[in-house]
From TrEMBL:
Residues 29-168 form the MgtC/SapB/SrpB/YhiD N-terminal domain. It holds the Pfam family MgtC. Belongs to the MgtC/SapB family. One of its GO terms (cellular component) is plasma membrane. Keywords: Cell membrane, Membrane, Transmembrane, Transmembrane helix. This is MgtC/SapB/SrpB/YhiD N-terminal domain-containing protein. It comes from Fusobacterium nucleatum 13_3C. Its main location: membrane. It is a multi-pass membrane protein.
């Protein structure tokens, strides 16, 4: 038992490694799988576009990249010891270059998780940010900054789980939606508009924009909906207006 504790203490206090042994590499990769999996599980459970395996691979890949960079650093140090600093100065490595490419390159995964949902609502932004943050955690693991990586994952879970409940309770989000209303008789267009206005007013729905096509008897309402307002309920209410042929959300 003491040997295990000493090993854990050694790994957790390891920053810049003197040598990337097989044990160190395996420990870092396993830790990347575990921490990436924790975030991925939370996303998978909520049916997000990027889930368990995606986050594991992002964290895993980022850890590999930073270990490669770390190995380059070690190789240059060895070269300086054996061949002299004059030779080593010819070969230089930017310690942050590969990591910077990971941080910018992982953006394509984040972009793939962002989707336009119903109306003008955009979804997947939290998942995209989570993928980016997971890549940063992987880089930290690969460099050996385990304390930063573990604390970062804990805070990420708190942000994605606990703050989601706080947000849903205190922050009333609005959705931009469009409803297209078609009237049978374009001559009764004005009366239909008045009734539609009244329905939106009763439901405390703010009208952002109106597009009228009176010759076709069509009007499109762009509205901002908050709270408990249900799309189907609005459609039913608008359909009850006299002279309405159909109502649909677009």
């Amino acid at each position: 038992m003491p040997n295990i504790l000493e090993m854990i203490d050694k790994f957790l206090n390891l920053k810049f490694a003197g040598e990337l042994t097989v044990e160190v590499v395996c420990f870092r990769l396993v830790l990347a799988i575990i921490l990436g999996g924790i975030v991925g599980y939370e996303r998978e459970k909520n049916n997000r576009p990027a889930g368990f395996r995606t986050h594991i691979l992002v964290c895993f890949g980022a850890a590999i990249v930073s270990m490669i960079q770390d190995q380059l650093r070690l190789n240059i140090l060895d070269l300086a010891r054996t061949e002299g600093s004059a030779v080593a100065s010819v070969i230089k490595t930017d310690l942050g270059r590969l990591g910077a490419q990971v941080i910018s390159g992982v953006g394509f995964l984040g972009a793939g998780s962002i989707m336009k949902e119903k109306g003008e609502t955009i979804g997947g932004l939290t998942t995209a940010a989570g993928i980016w943050a997971t890549a940063c955690v992987g880089l930290g693991i690969g460099w050996g900054f385990y304390n930063i990586a573990i604390v970062a994952i804990l805070f990420m879970i708190i942000i994605m789980v606990s703050l989601k409940r706080v947000e849903s309770k205190f922050v009333k989000k609005s959705r931009l939606l469009k409803f297209e209303v078609k009237f049978f008789d374009s001559d009764d267009f004005a009366n239909g508009l008045i009734e539609a206005y009244e329905i939106f007013r009763q439901k405390s729905i703010k009208i952002s924009e109106i597009d009228k096509y009176q010759d076709e008897g069509i009007v499109t309402f762009t509205v901002s909906m908050k709270g408990r307002n249900n799309i189907s309920d609005v459609v039913v209410s608008l359909s009850s207006i006299k002279n309405v042929e159909y109502v649909r959300d677009v």
